[in-house]
Each structure stands twice: as structure tokens, then as C-alpha cells.
């Protein structure tokens, strides 16, 4: 055509391809003969084939018939002009074969990207391990009239605890399929499930994009990001700052200020954010280690032998102590059994009296021993001043105390049952000739009533002793000690109310068993009263943190020396004059103050927080924040007494080249002291290195005269004691606000540890595991904010946080790969659930790798 004609191409979306030959591109050409008058248009429909183009029809723009002779001539002319058709075909082919250059994407073959491809799951293994059959079963239970409502969608597919997020997912899947309404049928649920369970990363990415893209226009705006953040996480701080973090994402992904981001931008960010720590180890070494850890098939006897050998090797200290104790009880029991076997009473009461007297003899021993594990001052002195710690498991003092209590209960049961059910009935049924043999024990007149034996002095005192012991054991149980069950008044003011009672203490040799233990225990109580009065402390600072945690900073008494990981007992007469509670010291030995962090878990701690939060008489606010410093001479605070320090397992961390510190919730307190101590030692070593570089023989300057430096170079033993070259600290907590407790310590470590001695990991279990679609938004925010500002959005520190619970096997594996032929001290403080897993992994890796893990648990 020689006339100038504007061709308007009504293109379709590339994401919706059309089969060839079904629909034809439509072009509209203005007729230049009438353009000056009324701008009439015509529609030309072309059929595109692989290598040719044909004119399908030429019609008026309004869709009417072609009555104009000129249009008929144009149509016939177009059919003959192959050059025009060829040019159009070439243009369309070039558009098809050479699309515009795509948005630059991250290389998925890289390790970080490959790891990210495993993420963005909508159903975790724990929740989504169910096959479609189980989902279908839940549908039948939840559906009403064959329709599943939107509110029950999350429960049906197994997405627990995420009702809002499940609702957003329901809406996204419905929009994609043009489903209206708030209910779906089983066939539609099956279609939804197939997409949710699809393992393709592209499919999961598209699903997540559709959740954010609520208007389905293929673009994500700032408002849509803010809307998703309210349902995608359970972190209050992020929800409060949703606007700010949404702008942060837009700034990162929309540098041109277009006001929206595309799916390619979202994919790039997700792949870039999936950097796993410690990914530098060799895959071959990791594979070899996995092979070693896989249990091989063994004969039953071989497996029992190897398990027994490993058990003795791991627990030889406990084994010899328990063997000695059990041997002593067995010897005493046998001694009394044989003694009464040769007495006249045996002819009447038989073996029952022998068993009763043997059990009574073990009671004397155990009644004496049960006090010794609670003599904390004596144990601390033996741990610190002697070498007995190498052979005696002082860390198990509380467990040994409980085991002895169980043995006392068994002994009491054997003694009482033998007398009440065997000896007394036999005495009643004895003939006069038989009773004559026991006259010296029970009197000349043979009783004919069972009550006669029970109401005697021995019977009454024995029953009283059993009742008092039952009270003592009951009040010492976890339910009462942790205030799960409240005591009646006045016992609610007496924490740890115990009864130590014995029968016939002045008879025979019983006093020989009890003299030394009672003397030591009484001396311990006198030491506590004396030491707490002369080593008075003053409250310097009080802070109330999120999660009901009270922090007390106290003056450090003169001569108060302690080690990181140890603990003290705290008493506050304003709460209860009789109660002393143990708390780990969170300050480091080189600091000039003492600090403890107390979580309000029971009546005493709750009341302690209350008395420190009450407004003082001067009218100042009683609820103090962390940055408020109270003067030493201010009498507004209640008086606090301390007793200690006492030994704990964590204090021996310096004996190991590598340490793994694990704190669960408030259990991080002893680990924080250790981390501080390591940082202080790093500072001291840097000062010493700088002093050596400045020159030898010069007068010591202020730096060399500091207490910290004197501690390092003052004695060879002090310097030799610090052997730790690497520390791994894992802090697992449920609440985001918990990270406020030790925020300053985290930042200080990140700033001062230039050599990377301490590797810190914060885990927030209220966020879904990494890779879960519900935590994808937080992961994006975390990656952007940490890269831009160097601050983690979850913890508010420079330490990057992880989500959900740690994979402890992976943690042990990394340490074993990084530190072959090393001794690793594993120190744990917190709730009991992870203890078994951590201890078993330590044994497993110690047996099958060259790295030896030694597990220690805090016991109060």
C-alpha cells in the first residue's frame, strides 16, 4: 500500500498463549480517502501460519458488511500482495522468536539460590506430611452440605495456628480460578491442594505472588505488602512498623520509583536472601561424616557390648560413685540381715525381721548422705580448690540428692511393710513356746491385739517420721517448688519447706551416721547468715524488660570473687524473710558490679517484681527502664541479701578449646556471663599484644595497669586457664521481646570480636521455620534491613536471627567438621525437653567422629 496507514496491534498477554490457527491478530487501518471527513476505519483479519500469512476478511470497523467498492478492491489487492504479508509475517516472527530481554535473574545454580529453591513452602513437613486422603477426610468432617467455608480452610489442609494467612491463601487461589464466594467444593479443594503441594519453586513463587497481588494486575504495590504483613507473621514489633518496612522493600526492589514491583524482582530477593551460615565445609567431608553417623547392622550381643562400653566411657564418674553407694547399702543390708538371721527372733518372725532391719540400716546411711549434696559451699570449695572435680561428678549433686530420696522411700517401704504385714501378724499367731524367744523385746505378756504393736513408741514415732517425710517430699516436688500448686498459709511464705526427721536418734549407732552431715549442714546455714550480713549489696540499677523479666544490678562486695557461669542465692525480706532463690550471675568477673536477670514465673518472683515496681515515697516512678541508674545511697529500694557464689557446670568452660553454649529462654543467663568473659579476655589479649608491639622494657602505661590486664599477666595460671579459641552461642526464645534482655551484650560482642571467636545465633520460635511461606516476608525484610543498616529486625541487634527451632544434628555436624580432633564442651541451661537430644547427639558424635563432645547441664 502506498497510502500511509496506521496499524494498531491489539496484543494479548504473553502469559496466556493461544493455539495457532484458532485466533488471528486483528489490525485496524484508517481509510485515507475519508480520513479528512469522518476518520472511518476498517478491520483487516489475518491468518498467521508457520511460514505464510493470509487475509481472512476485510470489514468495516463497526462490523457491517463491505458495501464500499473501494474496500472490495483493497481486499483483493491485499490477497495478491505477498510482499505486505511477508513483511507482516517477518515482523510478527521476530517478535515471537526474539522477545524483549527478560529481567535479570539470579543464577539458580549457586549454592544460596539452590538452598532457596527448597523454601517458600506453604505446608511444613509436620503439618503437610498428610496425603490428599487425610485432607479429604478432614474435608468430610468439616464441610457443611458439601462445601468447605473459608474459615476452616487452614484447619482442613493442616495449616495450624495461621488462620489469617490461610484465609489469604484461600483468597489468592480463588482469584486465580475466578471462584467467587467463601466456600469451595471438594473438587475445588483438590485443585487447591495440588497447587499448594507442588514442589516446584516457580509454582510456589507464583502462589505467594498472587497472595500479595490482591487486585491480580501482575504488580505488587506498597499497600499490598502492608496488608500481607499483618497476617504473615506474629511479631508485634514488625506489625507496628509495617509501613516503614513496606517502604524499605519498595526502595530495594523499585529503584525507578514506578510504584510497583514484578514477580521477577520478588524472585531475585528471595534467592539472594537464602544464605546459610557455615556453608564453607566440604561436601565430601559432610558426606563421609553422615556415613559414619549411620548405624551399621550389628549382632544383638555386639550392639549390647558396644552400647555398654560407650555408656561406661561416657558416665564413668557416675558409675563408680553409684557403684560405691550401692555397694555400701548392700553391705549394710547384708550385715544386718545376717545379724538378725542368727538371733532368736528369726524363729518367730523369719526373714521378714531380717529384711526390716536391713532396710533400717540403709536408712541410717541415706538419712546422713541426703544432706551432703545440698551443702553447696562445701561442694563449691571442693570443686574450686581440689582436683576431686576430675573424678567426682559434682554437677550431679541435685540428681544424687533425688536418687538418695528415692532410696529412702524404698527403704521406708520395705521396713514398714515387713513389720506391719509380716512381723506383727506372726507375733500374734506365735505359740507360747515361740513367744518365749522374743520376750526380751516385747515383754512378758503376749499381746492379743494388733493395735498393741502399732501404738507403741516405735510404731508412733515411725508413723510420725513417715508422715513428715511425705510432707517433705511433697513440698520438694516440682509442682510446689515452681508454684504450680499454692500452699496454704503460713506455708506459702516458706519456700523449700522441708523436714529432716529420724527415729531413735540417740539409740545404738545412729548418731555416728548423722553427726558429721548435720554438723556440716548447720555450718553451711551459719555461713549463709554471716556472709550475707557482712557482704551487703546496694541496688545500683533496676530494669523491667518485656517478657516479665526483672534485672537487678548490685554493688560488688569487697572480696567477692566468682567465675562466669556460677550462681548466687537472693533473699528479699520485703517478699519473704525465709526464702532464698538461686539465680545465675549475668555479669562478668572483670566487671565492677553484679547483675542477675529474674523472670517472674512464680509467687516469689512475681512479688519481687511488684515491690521493685512500686512508686517510692518521693513520688518517682517505680517501674524503671534499662537506662535509668539509681544512686547507691538511695533508700527507696527494698533490701536484698545475696549468698554465694556457688559452683556450676558452665564455670569450667575454659577447660575446652571449643564450647557450645545453649540457652533456652531465661536459661541464657549463665551463657551471657561466659560470652562477656570471653570478650573481656579478647580485650585483655589485644591489650597485651599491643603492649608487646609498643616495645618491651618500657614503663607500664594506664592500659597495662588496668585490672583486666593484670588479671591476664599477673600469674601464669590465670593465663593458662583460658584455653577457649572458639565459642558457639545458641539462644532459643519464643518471644521477640526477649532479645531486649541482652541487646547490649549482643551488640558489644559483634563490635569487639574482630577475630570471630564467638559465633552467635538467635532463634525466635514464634516465627515459622526458614523456607516457610509464612516467614518469607520477614526473611525479605531481614535480608534488606541487615544489608542496609546492619541491624536484625527480629532481635534489634547486629546478630542475625533465625526462625523456628535449631536443627541440633546440623549444629553438631558443623562443629565436628570445623574442629576435628578437638574437645568440645556443650553447656545447656533451660527447660528439660531438649536435654535428651543434646546429650544423645554429644554421645553419638563423640563415638563416631574424632571430635569429642562433653555435655553439661545446669542444675539448681
UniProtKB/TrEMBL annotation:
Domain FAD-binding FR-type: 527-652
Signal peptide positions on this chain: none
Main location as per UniProt: membrane
CDD domains, sorted: NOX_Duox_like_FAD_NADP
Alphabetized UniProt keyword annotations: Calcium, FAD, Flavoprotein, Membrane, Metal-binding, NADP, Oxidoreductase, Peroxidase, Phosphoprotein, Transmembrane, Transmembrane helix
One Gene Ontology cellular component: plasma membrane
Matching Pfam families: FAD_binding_8 (PF08022), Ferric_reduct (PF01794), NAD_binding_6 (PF08030), NADPH_Ox (PF08414)
Subcellular location: Membrane
GO MF annotations in UniProt: calcium ion binding; NAD(P)H oxidase H2O2-forming activity; peroxidase activity
UniProt membrane topology term: Multi-pass membrane protein
Ranges of residues in domain EF-hand: 204-235
Residue ranges, annotated region (Disordered): 1-34, 689-717
Positions of transmembrane segments: 319-338, 459-480
InterPro entries (UniProt xref): EF-hand-dom_pair, EF_Hand_1_Ca_BS, EF_hand_dom, FAD-bd_8, FAD-bd_FR_type, Fe3_Rdtase_TM_dom, Fe_red_NAD-bd_6, FNR_nucleotide-bd
Family: Belongs to the RBOH (TC 5.B.1.3) family.
Subunit structure: Monomer and homodimer.
Protein name: Respiratory burst oxidase
Source organism: Salvia splendens
Taxonomic lineage from the root: Eukaryota, Viridiplantae, Streptophyta, Embryophyta, Tracheophyta
